Amino acid sequence: MVLEELISHQNTINKVIDSLVPQIEQGCQLIKDTLSRGNKILIAGNGGSAADAQHIAAEFTGRFEVEREALPAIALTVDTSALTAISNDYGFERVYSRQILAYAKPGDIFIAISTSGNSKNIIEALKTAKEQNCISIGLSGRDGGLMNDLCDLNIVVPDKRTARIQEMHILIGHIFCKSVDEFFS
Ligand SMILES: O=C(CO)[C@@H](O)[C@H](O)[C@H](O)[C@H](O)COP(=O)(O)O
Ligand SMILES: [Zn+2]
């Protein structure tokens, strides 16, 4: 089983190498352009993808591999008072869209992470991000789901398994960070 899982991960990376390099490069460029204009990054996801959202945001506000200026990135997954109040008062579907209304300025980037591409709170957040004139980058999987029609750039990991898709998302997130390190250092 262990070897099979490792080989399955390797097969997914090979599919990403074969099909997603231009889209990942486009994501790097959008993020560098956004940060160098003085705009910020907002990130959200559910479950393992919530952990990815805060992991990636912290690489920007703190640092990744080299010394460079602090960069503005906010994970919408971390404030338990906001998460519980918004869910309780407006419904879980609006837990991220309400925070986008609070934080987003035109030209900011919203990175939406969903392996199915269909989580309702992520879809609502993408609709609000569009209304706020934000740029949206999707990290999704399977067939890209509803995110295909709502993201400026939807990076769809060509796999069916949530675990494999999540593993590629954090790799792509780290590639975004590497490209930002090179640009800002
Ligand atoms: O990490 C995992 C599974 O590996 C789970 O916590 C997973 O993220 C949750 O089931 C999410 O609710 C799935 O949502 P999504 O990726 O379809 O948007
Ligand atoms: Zn997981």
Structure, explained:
By secondary structure, the chain is an alpha/beta fold. The protein has one domain: Glucose-6-phosphate isomerase like protein, domain 1 (Rossmann fold). 55% of the residues lie in helices and 14% in strands. It is built from seven helices and five strands. It has helices at 2-19, 21-36, 48-61, 80-90, 97-103, 120-131, 162-184, and strands spanning 41-45, 73-75, 109-113, 135-141, 153-157. The protein has a five-stranded parallel beta sheet, sandwiched between helices. α5 (97-103) runs parallel beside α6 (120-131). The mean pLDDT is 98. Zinc ion is lined by residues 48, 163, 166. This is Phosphoheptose isomerase. Pathway: Carbohydrate biosynthesis; D-glycero-D-manno-heptose 7-phosphate biosynthesis; D-glycero-alpha-D-manno-heptose 7-phosphate and D-glycero-beta-D-manno-heptose 7-phosphate from sedoheptulose 7-phosphate: step 1/1.
CATH architecture descriptor text: 3-Layer(aba) Sandwich
Tally of individual domains:
1
In DSSP terms (H or I, runs of 4 or more residues), the helix count works out at: 7
Give the C-alpha Rg.
16 Å
CATH topology: Rossmann fold
Mean pLDDT: 98
Straight-line N-to-C gap: 42 Å
Reading off the top of the CATH hierarchy, the class is best stated as: Alpha Beta
Give the cofactors and ligands: D-altro-hept-2-ulose 7-phosphate, zinc ion
Biggest sheet, strands in spatial order? Answer: 2-1-3-4-5
Parts with pLDDT < 50 across at least 5 consecutive residues = none
The gross shape turns out to be: globular
Task: Please count the beta strands (DSSP E, at least 2 residues each).
Answer: 5
Structural class comes to alpha/beta
- Biggest sheet, open or closed, and with what strands and sense? 5 strands, parallel
Q: Spell out the helices and strands N to C.
A: HHEHEHHEHEEH
Counting copies of identical and different chains, the oligomeric state is single chain
The fourth-level CATH homologous superfamily is Glucose-6-phosphate isomerase like protein, domain 1
